[in-house]
TrEMBL record:
InterPro entries, per database record: ConA-like_dom_sf, TSPN-like_N
All residue ranges annotated as the Thrombospondin-like N-terminal domain in the record: 62-246
Gene name for this UniProt entry: LOC127371825
Keyword field: Repeat, Signal
TM annotation in the entry: none
The organism's taxonomic lineage, starting at the top: Eukaryota, Metazoa, Chordata, Craniata, Vertebrata
Biased segments, Basic and acidic residues type: 316-325
Designated name of the protein: Collagen type XIX alpha 1 chain
Gene3D superfamilies xrefs: 2.60.120.200
Residues forming coiled coils: none
């Protein structure tokens, strides 16, 4: 089939038009794709969060933009400045449960860190209790963290995309110290397909997980509640935070466990947040990095030194100058006959 010169010109014009249309579509789609990636990190579910400066060290050239929620303030009504020492709360007297819409009015971030400081008591060190749980209107658990004193383990559970509950148990021997009735910091990093457990600022274990379903905010959220009967658990707690960043659990130090007034030096050897998710498989294949606490605390008072050597006697002093004449004395008493 042969075309005339006029037909060939029309075909060439059509091909040129199609090429330009494809090019313009590609160019216009790039900002949209970038905007979607940004909106995933700033979707409105994560308000700004003010935390103490000594909690972690900044490895970036600019200050960290921290977002998240202080569950301590929301459930325990803690008020105060960030410069004060963290108070501790004796829990167990009343249930700590609220509507999820009040705690997460804009939903829960798909990736986050949960960090808390607590210590169990003698009567509850073997209890099995929810550190944190979100359940739906029918009472089904959507996400939870369980502390199991009997098994000396920590459990994380969530729903997959088919709404099936998936439970991941962490029972490393390194977690046994969590139940020794001393203060400890527990951190949980939740990513799309990974859950990591940190205790006292050391990585304990990482687990691959199924992709997680989004949270339905129509139910309720609770903290520190016994699994067996739903009663509040008798523990002491300083703080429980949710960061809208899965890497914050790794970046925290443990200076407040050593000395409440310690300040953290600006040094950190953890892993900085990757720019693209394609780096995650490579990170999992590398040895887990551990953050090093470098807390600048006041020097401790030293032991008393030994007594010094007895000094030799000093030289005899020079003779002093003659003193001034004294005042006249009082008249004497009359004599006796």
């Amino acid at each position: 089939m042969r075309f005339s010169s006029g037909q060939l010109s029309s075909v060439r014009a059509m091909i040129s038009l199609l090429r330009w249309t494809a090019f313009l579509w590609t160019v216009n789609s790039i900002p949209c794709t970038f905007g979607m990636a940004v909106s995933e990190r700033t979707d409105g579910s994560c308000p700004p969060l003010t935390v103490e400066e000594y909690r972690f060290s900044d490895i970036l050239d600019r200050p960290l933009e921290i977002t998240g929620l202080d569950l301590t303030e929301m459930f325990l009504l803690r008020k105060g400045t960030v410069t004060e020492d963290l108070p501790s709360f004796r829990l167990g007297s009343s249930p700590l449960i609220k509507p999820t819409k009040l705690i997460f009015p804009n939903g829960l971030s798909s990736e986050y860190s949960l960090v808390t400081i607590f210590r169990v008591r003698r009567t509850t060190k073997k209890d099995r209790w929810y550190l944190w749980q979100i359940f739906d209107e029918s009472g089904g658990s959507q996400v939870s963290v369980v502390v199991d004193g009997g098994k000396k383990a920590v459990e994380f559970s969530s729903q997959d995309l088919l709404k099936n509950t998936r439970r991941y148990t962490f029972k490393s021997r390194d977690l046994h110290a969590l139940f020794d009735r001393q203060w400890h910091k527990l951190g949980i990093s939740v990513q799309s397909n990974i859950v990591s457990i940190y205790m006292d600022c050391k990585l304990i274990e990482k687990r691959q997980t199924d992709e997680k379903a989004s949270i339905d905010p129509s139910g309720r959220t609770l903290i520190t509640t016994r699994v067996e009967d739903g009663r509040p658990v008798d523990i002491e707690m300083r703080q429980i935070l949710i960061y809208c960043d899965p890497y914050m659990a790794e970046m925290e130090n443990c200076c407040e466990l050593l000395e409440p007034k310690c300040g953290a030096k600006k040094t950190f050897n953890g892993t900085s947040p990757p720019l693209v998710t394609a780096q995650l498989p490579q990170m999992l294949s590398q040895p887990a990095s551990q953050s090093i606490d470098r807390c600048q605390c006041p020097a401790e008072k030293g032991d008393a030194d030994l007594p010094g050597v007895v000094a030799l006697p000093g030289e005899k002093g020079n003779k002093g100058d003659k003193g001034d004449t004294g005042d006249a004395g009082l008249p004497g008493n009359p004599g006796h006959k």
